[in-house]
Amino acid sequence: MRRLVALLVIALLGATLYGLSNNASGISVNGATVSGSTFRSELAAISTNATLGCYVAALDPVSFAPGAGGASMNASGAAAWANLRVEGIAINEFAAKNLKFHPDAATLAKARASLEGELTAASSNLQTPCTGTSVQALSEMPSEMRNFEIASQAASLDLVAKLNTTVPLTTASMQQYYSTHTSDYDTICVSVAVIAPSQLTAFNQAQSQGMSVAALAKKFSADPSGRKGGAYGCFAPSSSSYSGVRTDTLSTALNTFPTTPQQVTYNNATADLFVAPTSRTPTPFAQAESAVLSDLENANASAASTERERILYLDSVVAIDPSLGRWGLGTSGPSVFAPAMPSSSAVGTATITALGVGASTYK
Hints:
alpha+beta; 4-stranded antiparallel sheet; 14% strand; elongated; disordered N terminus
């Protein structure tokens, strides 16, 4: 099950973090604090440990590099890591206070295994997976950082499980969900037509006059499938392409092309892609289970995100060291924003560059 907050890092933004002075005040959420020195040790761990750094990048695969001041990172990265800490502390405090959640050793062990599993899954999605293991990545964290991540995983799992808007990811619950959403998991056969811009008007006119999908594809499509009436194949829920096919055909009636195409690049030129569902066949749960699980994970994550925003907005008193960022309300909810940089016209581009990379002379 996914954590309520993204694991380890929500958005490193490809950045390295500000060099923080030893007397930095750090972060406070509802009276619980992370000192500047603790925060700095976490940044150094990510920057200097290859396995941990790889798994962090796997969770948010945007590159990041050390700043000019040793174990330092730039402003946007510092704000992102501070945001993770704020959210994690807020969830831990909310779970303890409102849900009376006090994990025992067995619960923490399960949370650690869950965290390791999610790290492993993130690494496996990389073009070149991390060479070390997720167990090694956790071992490279300072003990306080590792304990925090495991405790936050445990609190998040407990909170998500208790939300009224989430569905437990058990086989029985997934089968029940599937039984009321069976048509969402039909095996879908489709035909396509790739139409050059010069042919689009004639294609639309022919379709409005009732020409069939097969005839339209044969007459107008630039794709080789046009020779066989546009037939492109059938996609079951177990297919890696299923989610896209389902989205493309969601509001299109059988054996018709939509009136609004997708713009694509075909043979190095712009073209219009039309996708028509030609049949929908019910799929047994056993074959649809992976798609049901993915849908429920996404739905639970959305519900959890809404709850996260509510906790941060209504239940949390937050204070941030100004060198880390500022706490405010953005379009995606409460979060830590990177400190604003002065205009280059006011202080010069060289100064802006130095601030952006966390120069060792600016702390």
